[in-house]
Specification:
Structural class: alpha+beta
CATH superfamily of the largest domain: Lipoprotein localisation LolA/LolB/LppX
Distance between the termini: 18 Å
Number of strands: 16
Number of domains: 2
Strand content: 25-35%
CATH topology of the largest domain: outer membrane lipoprotein receptor (LolB), chain A
Radius of gyration: 22 Å
CATH class of the largest domain: Mainly Beta
Shape: globular
Helix content: 10-25%
Largest sheet: 13 strands, antiparallel
Number of helices: 9
Strand order of the largest sheet: 7-6-5-4-3-2-14-13-12-11-10-9-8
Order of helices and strands: EHHHHHHHEEEEEEHHEEEEEEEEE
């Protein structure tokens, strides 16, 4: 048995297996306009239920289905033929979507109160009998979308919370002096560590490079666009919702940008985070769901952000925990952050950091088409960044195979690679 890390292009926030590549290809072949100006049925083939929604919401909606049911694309779709209706599970999924929309329309005035996850909870077949004991059954990120006005009596104002945060990290003046940041450290998945480098330039430019055994994985965003680049694959453009999420994450690392990211703040409630009392503050933006910002009551530091991407079927959550604040250049900055989604997590630990070092703008430019890396990988999956494939060795030939049922990982969200799979095995690149 050997491990093979198969690097391919990933869609930001994806938790699915193979499939997005074909859908994206259909989009390119069937449309000469931008995805944001067209509906799902104008861009993709054989859309029957999710008609009329913006086309860039279809992939996040499929991600939501996969996370809700704990499945991969091939549960409903044929590989490289996603428009076909050969699988009964696809017909069932359509019927379930129609039922969900009808329930919300008839009982909740069309509000999104019932979703796929409301019943499935990570299982393709909903559990109809109460579970007596479930030690590990809860998702790390639970639904916390604010729906009702909370009781804020006795809570500080939003200005007080934000003001204390700026003072806690060194003051607004110190924050305003930081314009660039170069960070180097490791990215941890389970017990495995991979080198990582983060280049950031205010206000919203950031490029993250993870060095996997099979080559570098690069995730980038600037003021205009976002992209992902991996060995053997063409550069992949992020959708508008993915770009917005990546740009927000980049801006949050510059504390003086906080009041520019959100148009309004509302103190929501108190809540414990890792044993510490925090104030939960809603960050409001136009045409976007509120982000929840968690500030430590004692230190004043930002310790968690919980944000959502809305899809026609439900909201995809992302939780980022910040820790290990250290002072550099008069400003306290988190040297560790952990990104959690329903299907997995990863942690970046910074070991070296330089600030206000000149970084040329071209470092944040999207790579030219065709600059895909050093390896040519015979895999069709475009929704995962690396796939763990454990298989026997046949003589001296190592076969490169497609996505397996094993857990998968991408720097932007995925399932966790179990550390036990690495023991006694060795890396081998697929070329």
């Amino acid at each position: 048995m050997r491990i093979k890390i198969l690097l391919s292009t990933c869609v930001a926030g994806a938790v699915l297996g193979s499939g997005a590549g074909t859908l994206r290809a259909q989009s390119a072949q069937s449309s000469t306009g931008t995805a944001t100006s067209r509906t799902t049925e104008q861009v993709y083939k054989n859309i029957q239920v999710l008609k009329g929604f913006p086309s860039d919401q279809l992939i996040p909606a499929m991600q939501f289905v996969a996370a809700s049911l704990g499945v991969q694309c091939d549960f409903c779709h044929l590989e490289n033929a996603f428009e076909k209706d050969d699988k009964q599970t696809k017909q069932t999924a359509r019927n379930m979507m129609r039922m969900m929309f009808a329930i919300n329309k008839d009982n909740f005035d069309g509000q999104q109160k019932v979703t796929c996850y409301a019943c499935h909870r990570g299982a393709h077949k909903p559990v109809i009998t109460p579970i007596i004991s479930e030690e590990d059954g809860k998702s790390v990120v639970e639904e916390k979308m604010p729906h009702e006005a909370p009781n804020t009596a006795g809570l500080p104002s939003a200005d007080q919370v934000i003001g204390k945060y700026l003072q806690a990290v060194g003051g607004a003046e110190a924050a305003s002096r930081i314009s660039t940041r170069i960070q180097k450290g490791t990215l941890a998945v389970g017990s495995e560590l991979f080198p990582v480098e983060v280049l950031a330039k205010a206000p919203a430019n950031r490029v993250t490079t993870v060095r996997f055994p099979g080559g570098n994985s690069v995730t980038g965003v600037n003021r205009d666009e976002g992209w992902l680049s991996t060995p053997g694959r063409e550069v992949h453009d992020m959708s508008p919702s993915e770009v917005d999420a990546a740009r927000t994450d980049a801006e949050l690392f510059f504390p003086n940008r906080l009041k520019l990211i959100f148009k309004e703040f509302r103190v929501q409630q108190k809540e414990q985070v890792n044993g510490h009392e925090t104030y939960v503050v809603l960050g409001m933006r136009d045409n976007q769901p509120p982000a929840q910002l968690y500030f430590d009551q004692e230190s004043g530091r930002l310790v968690r952000v919980l944000r959502f991407v809305v899809t026609p079927l439900g909201s995809n959550p992302t939780q980022i925990d910040y820790a290990d604040y250290r002072e550099e250049g008069g400003l306290k900055t988190p040297f560790r952050w952990t990104v959690v989604r329903p299907n997995g997590r990863f942690t970046i630990q910074i070991e070296q950091m330089q600030q206000n070092i000149p970084i040329e703008d071209d470092k944040f430019a999207k790579p030219a088409a065709g600059n895909a890396g050093v390896s040519s990988l015979p895999v069709s999956s475009l929704w995962i960044q690396s796939v763990l494939v454990c298989e026997p060795t046949y003589g001296e030939t190592d076969r490169c195979i497609g996505p397996s049922k094993s857990p998968v990982f991408s720097p932007l969200g995925s399932q966790v690679l179990p550390p036990s799979c690495f023991k006694g095995l060795q890396y081998r690149n697929c070329t």
